[in-house]
Amino acid sequence: MTDVLPGHPNRSPNHPPDGVRTPNKTPAAPGPRFRRRGLPRRPRLLGRGSRTPNYPAGLGSLIWLGIVGLPLYVLVAATFQTRDGYIDDGPLALPDHPTLANYRRVLRSDFLSYLLNTALVTAVCAAIVITLSVTVGYTVVRARGRTSRRIFQIFLLGLAIPSQAVVIPVYLVITKLHLYDTLLAVILPTAAFSLPVSVLILVGTLRDIDEELYESMALDGASPTRVLFQLVVPLSRSGISTVGVMSALHAWNGFLFPLLLTQSKSNRLLTLGLYDYVGEFRVDTPALLTAVVLSILPIFLVYLFARRQLINGLMGMGGK
């Protein structure tokens, strides 16, 4: 509150006396601004529409699009051609008379049986890998003992052992267990070789979970099993999705173990079923590529819906 002069109830000390005019204090117009020598100019902000186009990047993108798109075009276009038309016109020609005969032929063959076998092997492998990798990763992160570290090192050692190097021992073990020519003979080694990288991913995912969350559940009296299912699994869904998609891709595209450990046609998978269109003296290329397209679609749909979780898990953001 300002002080009021005596005798002037509404006059403050800063108010000029009566009869005295104050100069008009209007702000002066700003003068020209001079830039000091040696100082850089402030960068000019460009709008979104005024950005300079990056022509080399655009050219590189078009080249890469052509490299990726040309094989896909050849793959899809050949499925609508006849065998004679494919041989006469070549793989790059558009089909003169598109036909669905190749799709009808493939679907009427044993393709659906191969597809069911492959889907069963893929689902069981993914379930085994997810179950074991989550429990092993939880043990490695929470136990913090010498034994858990040794277990983790053994799983990491599996990353350096290729499946081709242990083909003969795996074949001998499968035959001793009387599992040869069964789908279980393909499931077990396929899941085993998917475990090392899956455990590595989930250990990194579980380490992102805050330690305070573990401690708060321990103070509430939660058992390790309850912590696993109520804390670890919900907060590591991205890592689990990554492990599931990677193990499913590995099982779906597997060729070596189905080739060596199965023999009968009833236990054949898609990767071996493609040989039905390869004869001794000729190859039915349109029918073969049609079977390839149909075998790609299921696993492509799985990847399409789980691609975000796959990328997040590989970037180490599964627990956040």
UniProtKB/TrEMBL annotation:
Q: Which domain of life is it from?
A: Bacteria
Q: How does it sit in the membrane?
A: Multi-pass membrane protein
Question: Which keywords, in A-to-Z order, does the entry hold?
Answer: Cell membrane, Membrane, Transmembrane, Transmembrane helix, Transport
Q: What Pfam families does the annotation carry? A: BPD_transp_1 (PF00528)
The record, for InterPro entries, names: MetI-like (IPR000515), MetI-like_sf (IPR035906)
Region (Disordered), start-end ranges: 1-50
SUPFAM superfamilies per the UniProt record, alphabetical: MetI-like
Q: What's an example Gene Ontology biological process for this entry?
A: transmembrane transport
The residues covered by the ABC transmembrane type-1 domain are 115-306
- Residue ranges with Basic residues bias: 33-45
Q: Which residue ranges run through the membrane?
A: 54-76, 114-140, 152-174, 186-206, 227-252, 287-306
Where found?
A: Cell membrane
Supply one GO CC term from the record: plasma membrane
PROSITE patterns this protein is in? ABC_TM1
What is stated as this protein's family in its record? Belongs to the binding-protein-dependent transport system permease family.
Protein name in UniProt = ABC-type transporter, integral membrane subunit
Annotated organism of origin: Streptomyces violaceusniger (strain Tu 4113)
